[in-house]
């Protein structure tokens, strides 16, 4: 109670100094210093939401003098303090709340995002969108609420530069995982296909380049590709494996040519068929994982539930969380299908 009382007095005192006097402008610089000092004092007393309110006042002061950089920094400090308050009241204290501070986090981030968009600072806007999306999805499992911010981060990050394309692919992987967890499988499949296509196109070369291999595209034309390395290879294989598992689980009625090719490659009875040898994601994939995935696909085709469980044990350490989630879903689907068939045959 004392903290709130002292805060109200200090806050009112600073606000009074900002009121315009006759023929005299308020001293914004002093107000900024005092609001900042008050926010730090409140931080030390773990009154994070009150500290956040001070930072919002600092942002307003900077806005009044047209200092966009400092205004954005103050808004981000406010958002982080609201987040500390939300964490303290919900996660650490295990209290039931209406997420008032989390709503303030979203509102403050929105204000900062708009600020940078108005200045045509797309990279900074995308960074803030991604930060907020990760907070909502990872920290609070608010998947549906995070989707618009991931999508906006992608649209703001679109650029012709290869490094920027990889950044977009990283965000797309996060968005696709959220789509899986919210049961929007067709949208997730579309995103994974876009990732594999974009990275493949990034590695399309002219014949004069070295360190390449020849493959055929979906129109039957021969093309030369560079073998993806590092992050590019990791993103390509992760998206392709997720795409494969989604194709098995969702069994869509209409397949794009790229999706048909994926199923054909992993359905081959040969260890490395001609189609697999010319399939860019497989070139980057660990040979043992490729063979395990081929075995998994063929076990699905033969409804061999026992073999599926054995393969799951071997694949589990090699796959991401969303891939293991899909792996579980596929096996559950197969088990339930076998159980239903047994009932119908009785």
TrEMBL record:
Pfam families: SNAP (PF14938). Coiled coil: none annotated. GO terms for cellular component: early endosome. It comes from Brachionus plicatilis. Gene3D superfamilies: Tetratricopeptide repeat domain. GO terms for biological process: vesicle cytoskeletal trafficking. This is Factor VIII intron 22-like. InterPro entries: F8A (IPR039494), TPR-like_helical_dom_sf (IPR011990). It comes from the Eukaryota.
């Amino acid at each position: 109670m004392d903290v709130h009382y002292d805060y109200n007095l200090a806050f009112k005192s600073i606000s009074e100094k900002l009121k315009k006097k006759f023929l005299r402008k308020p001293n914004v610089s002093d107000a900024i210093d005092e609001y900042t000092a008050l926010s730090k004092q409140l931080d030390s007393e773990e009154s994070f939401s009150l500290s956040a309110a001070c930072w919002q006042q600092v942002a307003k002061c900077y806005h009044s003098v047209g200092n966009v950089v400092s205004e954005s920094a103050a808004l981000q400090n406010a958002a982080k303090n609201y987040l500390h308050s939300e964490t303290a009241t919900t996660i650490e204290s295990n209290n039931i709340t209406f997420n008032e501070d989390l709503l303030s986090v979203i509102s403050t981030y929105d204000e900062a995002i708009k600020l940078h968009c108005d200045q045509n600072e797309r990279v900074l806007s995308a960074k803030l969108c991604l930060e907020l999306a990760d907070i909502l999805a990872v920290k609070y499992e608010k998947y549906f609420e995070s989707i618009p911010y991931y999508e906006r981060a992608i649209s703001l990050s679109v650029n012709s530069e290869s490094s920027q394309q990889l950044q977009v692919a990283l965000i797309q992987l996060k968005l696709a995982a959220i789509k899986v967890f919210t049961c929007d499988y067709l949208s997730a499949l579309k995103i994974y296909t876009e990732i594999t296509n974009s990275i493949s196109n990034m590695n399309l070369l002219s014949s004069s380049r070295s360190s390449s291999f020849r493959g055929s595209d979906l129109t039957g034309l021969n093309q030369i590709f560079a073998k993806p390395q590092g992050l590019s290879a990791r993103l390509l294989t992760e998206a392709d494996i997720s795409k494969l598992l989604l194709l098995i689980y969702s069994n869509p009625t209409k397949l794009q040519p790229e999706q048909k090719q994926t199923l054909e490659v992993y359905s081959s009875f040969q260890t490395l068929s001609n189609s697999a040898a010319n399939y860019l994601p497989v070139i980057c994939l660990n040979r043992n994982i490729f063979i395990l995935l081929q075995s998994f696909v063929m076990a699905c085709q033969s409804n061999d539930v026992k073999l599926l469980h054995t393969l799951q044990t071997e694949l589990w350490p090699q796959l991401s969380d969303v891939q293991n989630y899909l792996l579980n879903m596929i096996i559950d689907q197969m088990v339930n299908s076998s159980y239903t068939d047994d009932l119908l045959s009785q």
